[in-house]
Amino acid sequence: MNDHTKNNKKSMNENADNMAQNEDLDEALANVLNSDDSGGRAGETLSEGADEEIEKLEAAVQEQKDKYLRLMAEFDNYKRRNAKEKEELRLTGGKDIVSSLLVVLDDMDRASKQLETTTDVTVLKEGVSLIFNKLRAILQQKGLKAMEAVNEEFNPDLHEAITEIPAPNEKMVGKVIDMVEPGYYLNDKLIRHAKVVVGK
């Protein structure tokens, strides 16, 4: 639970307590007024003690109302801050991964220039292979993991069957024979199903 959520719950609890205290004070004030009017003494002047009690209760009610208004203002500020932080996260959430991939983009630019001038296919293959390996390494550091699917039991929660073909043996019936497109996990959470060929 983050600090914002804790503060939100705390503000809501304080708000509820203040409202309950306001109700208690209002009830006490009404009881004083009612007790003074009982016994057929309606219209008589309140005693000084009752006046002081009413003033105390009214002051307490006003204090609770002020606390309530402050809490509401704090809660409104919290909501505005939270909305602003969410918007900033939405706009810059991918900054870390994009920054990491810029080095791969730089390598690709250099490779593109080499393609225009170099005729040695072996050198070009090595360069492209290095770029691919760097890209895979960066993505793995960020939590990306390829799914192992071939020879595994077909699982609709993980795999998307493209087609079924006759299994080469009985052991491969209902299992993944080939993977057309790999599936991926990001920090152990599935982000793409593997497209597979299933034995029947």
Helices and strands in order, then pairings?
Elements: H1 3-37, H2 48-92, H3 95-117, H4 121-141, E1 144-146, E2 159-165, E3 176-181, E4 184-186, E5 189-192, E6 194-199
Helix pairs in contact: 1-2, 3-4
Largest sheet: 3 strands, antiparallel
Proportion of residues in β-strands: 5-15%
Number of helices: 4
Q: How would the global form be characterised?
A: elongated
Give the helices and strands as they follow along the chain.
HHHHEEEEEE
Please count the beta strands (DSSP E, at least 2 residues each).
6
Gyration radius (Cα, Å) is 36 Å
Number of domains: 3
Query: Segments where pLDDT lies below 50 for 5+ residues?
Result: 36-43
> Which structural category fits the helices and strands?
alpha+beta
In spatial order, strands of the major sheet run 1-4-5
Overall residue-averaged pLDDT value: 82
Work out the helicity level: 55-70%
Measured between the Cα atoms of the first and last residue, the distance is: 48 Å
Describe the protein:
The protein is of the alpha+beta class and 200 residues long. The protein is 62% helix and 14% strand. Helix 1 runs antiparallel to helix 2 and helix 3 runs antiparallel to helix 4. It is elongated, with a radius of gyration of 36 Å. It starts with a helix and ends with a strand. About 4% of the residues have low confidence.
